[in-house]
Prior knowledge:
The protein is 54% helix and 19% strand. By secondary structure, it is an alpha+beta fold. The strands form three sheets. Strands 2-1-5-4-3 form a five-stranded antiparallel beta sheet, sandwiched between helices. A five-stranded mixed beta sheet has the order 7-9-10-12-11.
Amino acid sequence: MFNKTRRKIVFTVVFSLLALMTVTLTTIYISNRIALDRDNREMLKTFAERYSIEGQTPPPDGEFRPDDAPDVRPGDRNGPHGDRPGKDEREFRLSTFYSVAYSKDGEVLAVDSGNSDLQSEESLLETAAAALDKGTESGRIGNMTYLVDEREDYTLVAMIDLTISDNNQTRLFYQMLVIGSAALIVLIVMSVFIARRIVRPLEESDKRQKRFVSDAGHELKTPIAVISANSELLKREIGQNEWLDNIDYENERMSDLVKQLLALSKAENGEVQKETLDFSKLVDGEVLPFETLAYEKGKNIVSDIEPGLFTEGNQSQLRQLVSILLDNALSHGTGKTINLSLRKEKHNAVLTVSNGAPEMSAERLSRLFERFYRADEARGEADAHYGLGLSIAKAVAEAHGGRIGANYKEGKAVFTVTVPIK
């Protein structure tokens, strides 16, 4: 149980941090990409504004003269020079731009390779032609971002090479991936350590509680035996007596309670020998004696048991599990019919016991398997029910690697036990 709790804590912590880290890194990557694309488009626009077909590009010495600039309003971020921040201007001068100018008839007027031999005129012409074919003002083709500027006498296709920025983005992605993976490993180790620290006090408390139940059960066996022996001696001395009968009755109830406590302790601590057994035959054999009890109460048990289902378990505990569910249905169920079925689902044997019952709230259903929990209407019954039966059933199911649950539907309480089969 506590191993499952630790795993849940680790999973919750790791999943939460992983989701947070993924969202954060993705946001950083995408925002960085958007910012780069925006800057590249602005620089392309600036390049197009400065372009003249006579000079093709801004002066090769990198100094932009105000005389060459178009008329731009002060404060315009997209202006060619004076109103752009110095950092943007430096990035503009360090970038490599390409351009192809076409006449209105589609004739190539000028090709500017940006004083670089990285791109041939043929590749620039192909990219420019593809950009014109797309019919969009701007976009991306391969590793080039383009801008189409329709002018009075010609059409300009301005381009900027994004190879370096793409490589930087790829490098950034892998760095985030490596750092994120390393951070995740550290977080997993830390979450395992934290989960152990959180669960340890609960685990120790549970162990003390189980030890107390086991020790108390064993210690109570002696006084119960002494009371029974003394009662028998008194009967021999003074004969039958209603007070002695009452002592014997309550002593017997106490003995049954101690037996149930010890059974619960054994089931929870896994103190059992397991063997391969025919679960179908075991369930069928346990139903037979209860059919007689059901008949005496004016009820009947309808069983549907799939044969040949084998499991690895303890025969005594599994018999007790089946008998607890049937006894619970006979004692607390309404209606005349109790339905029991055993069937195979994937790699599990699924045992279902259902009986008529008053409407049960979700809170009551969730508490059915708690120790000493009983429905209010059952508290006044003079029987051997102490609210431990379903707790024992749950412990047995979990000790065999299975689970047990209860739900209410169509006027019936349905108990379902799932155990692995061989």
